[in-house]
Amino acid sequence: MTSYCLPPPRELTKQLAHLGPAHFFRPYNNTRFRPGPPLKEHIAASVGAGPAVYYVQLSLDGLVLGAGLWHPEADQLERFRATIDDRRRAGAFERAVTRAKSADLDLAEPELKRAPKGYAPDHPRIERLRLKHLAVHHRHQLRRWLHTRECDRRVRTALEAARPFVSWLNENVGPATQPLRS
């Protein structure tokens, strides 16, 4: 990624510093194992220090804003499901999802077709138990406002709306505790 591409995203992540430190994704692809262009066709950054973070990506497909845990480990999914099984703690999750939805951030679709092992198919929160991606996101189409301060405002508004969701995940799911399987 050439250096003239980085100043706008760096400025944006400075404005989001209250959400945590920024991490920019590498601008190049590893072409040893997969053919394709050597440079990525998007620029992306995560913001946050917990296991659940905020995400911003700009590409020719648009601006993607998101937050949460995209690939939680097995122990994190177990803790999430145990928490969703508890009606009181699940209520806090639903309030966080509703707050994110107010900024057009949609919860990831459930990936499992059936109830996970140990849960009844008629569980009152079965849709949440079937989740494998614990994230909210929205893709904005490329429009003129992306080149104005309006973009910064929309990004800040959306990620602030996701703050209760990220906090809930960090408090109730937390970091992976089991070693990764090799």
Please provide a written account of the structure.
With 182 residues, this protein is an alpha+beta fold. The protein has one domain. It has helices spanning 7-15, 74-85, 87-101, 126-129, 149-161, 163-172; strands at 22-24, 42-47, 53-59, 62-69, 106-107, 134-140. Helix 3 packs antiparallel against helix 5. The longest helix has 15 residues, at 87-101. The two termini are 32 Å apart. The model has no long low-confidence stretch (mean pLDDT 90).
Low-confidence stretches: none
Let me know the number of strands.
6
Number of helices: 6
User: Strand arrangement, largest sheet?
Assistant: 1-2-3-4-6-5
Fraction of helical residues: 25-40%
Estimated radius of gyration:
18 Å
Largest sheet: 6 strands, antiparallel
- Give the SSE string: HEEEEHHEHEHH
Counting structural domains, the number is 1
Please state the overall shape, judged from the principal axes of the Cα atoms: globular
Mean pLDDT, to the nearest integer, reads 90
Write the layout of secondary structure elements.
Layout: H1 7-15, E1 22-24, E2 42-47, E3 53-59, E4 62-69, H2 74-85, H3 87-101, E5 106-107, H4 126-129, E6 134-140, H5 149-161, H6 163-172
Antiparallel strand pairs: 1-2, 2-3, 3-4, 4-6, 5-6
Helix pairs in contact: 3-5, 3-6
